[in-house]
Amino acid sequence: MESIDSKLTSAIMACLFAALISIGAYIAIPIPGTPVPIVLQNMFIILAGFILGPWWGLASVIFYLVLGAAGMPVFSGGTGGLVKLAGPTGGYLFGFIPGIVVFGLVSRLGKRTWYFNIVAGILGMAIVYVFGVARLKTVLGVDWTKALATGLIPFIPGDIAKIIIASLLAPPILKAIHHIEQQTGDV
């Protein structure tokens, strides 16, 4: 599978993915009984890991988190600020950091094939959930059963769909990027 060869292209793509993650966070559907909404941002984070790999993907997530921490309205529903990072959904945001490294590393181990991407997506999202559910439990002061019922179970079907979509989109996107780099001489 092709990879992104240019540092300039990788840096531009990391910024683009930070923007896509921000846009994906605006698409937030609240779920009654939980402070955690359904968002599209995690699909773009998964895709960033598959396309950019662990380190440039990490750069895109850190850039996104820094923007949000600085108060830019890039978190779910157009919110931002340190209070969001300290709140009940802050664990998911922090979980994106190790999650994207896993997305990128496992995807690259499997030569970025769609089936290894699915494995990478499942492993990375499991890490995001560990951080997210643990933080949710702590902030809300609920037991593990309630934390899992409000912070994990409702999101599994949608996140599986997002992992599959990102896994199928990544190979043709990488191929297109490689083709563009060859055409522009940016290799």
Q: How are the SSEs ordered, and which strands pair?
A:
Blueprint: H1 7-26, E1 28-29, E2 38-39, H2 41-69, H3 82-86, H4 90-109, H5 114-140, H6 144-151, H7 156-184
Antiparallel strand pairs: 1-2
Helix pairs in contact: 1-2, 2-4, 2-7, 4-5, 5-6, 5-7
Helix content: over 70%
- SS element count, helices: 7
> What average pLDDT do the residues reach?
92
Total tally of structural domains: 1
- Which CATH top level class fits? Mainly Alpha
Structural class: mainly alpha
* Largest sheet features: 2 strands, antiparallel
Regarding quaternary structure, what we see is: single chain
The gyration radius over C-alpha positions equals 16 Å
Task: Give the tally of β-strands.
Answer: 2
State the order of secondary-structure elements, H for helix, E for strand: HEEHHHHHH
> Do you know the CATH architecture?
Orthogonal Bundle
The strand order across the widest sheet is 1-2
CATH fold naming: Arp2/3 complex 21 kDa subunit ARPC3
